[in-house]
């Protein structure tokens, strides 16, 4: 299935749905878990990020699992509800981008949130599980070769438009995956540089 994006089908209701997806994305699971359990700000602890990995550093394995699952669920929920409500492809695509943006740049937290990996996986699972499956397969292959998870996962996201095209998706869908990749890869840029610096001597 390769849906086309029709701008004439986008209504005020769809716009409100996109805003709701952003608001849902703003609920950063790890941040609120740490606030609840310790009273502290996750972004001031550990590595200073508001993602599952740092939540695990602060709360242990259960915190990592709960944060990862919570962020994946909110991404999946945003897309599922949009599809259930009969949103057209354009609106569903914007919902995907909005829920990732809300997680990365939550308004109530001053725009300092997570990096979008888990929430985007949840959203893409409902948007197109076949393309996501291809991305995960590529990531697994690269991790097996390089033993570098961050670089491998970001390479899989960067390749997602090509994977989508290879699976017969339309150009608008390819562009949607490209936009989602930018939202995920950009916050990881510092991690990529640090990972490379650790592995490549000067």
3D architecture notes:
- It is a single chain.
- The protein is mostly helical and 202 residues long.
- It has one domain.
- The chain has 11 helices and no strands.
- Helix 4 packs parallel to helix 6, helix 5 runs parallel beside helix 10 and helix 7 runs antiparallel to helix 8.
- The protein starts with 11 loop residues before the first helix and ends with a helix.
- The mean pLDDT is 89.
Number of strand segments: 0
**Outline:** globular
Mean pLDDT: 89
Q: What helical percentage do the residues reach? A: over 70%
Structure summary:
By secondary structure, the chain is an all-alpha fold. It has helices spanning 12-25, 29-38, 52-59, 61-84, 89-104, 117-127, 129-146, 149-158, 160-166, 171-185, 189-199.
Helix/strand layout:
Blueprint: H1 12-25, H2 29-38, H3 52-59, H4 61-84, H5 89-104, H6 117-127, H7 129-146, H8 149-158, H9 160-166, H10 171-185, H11 189-199
Main attributes of the structure:
single chain, 202 residues, mainly alpha, globular
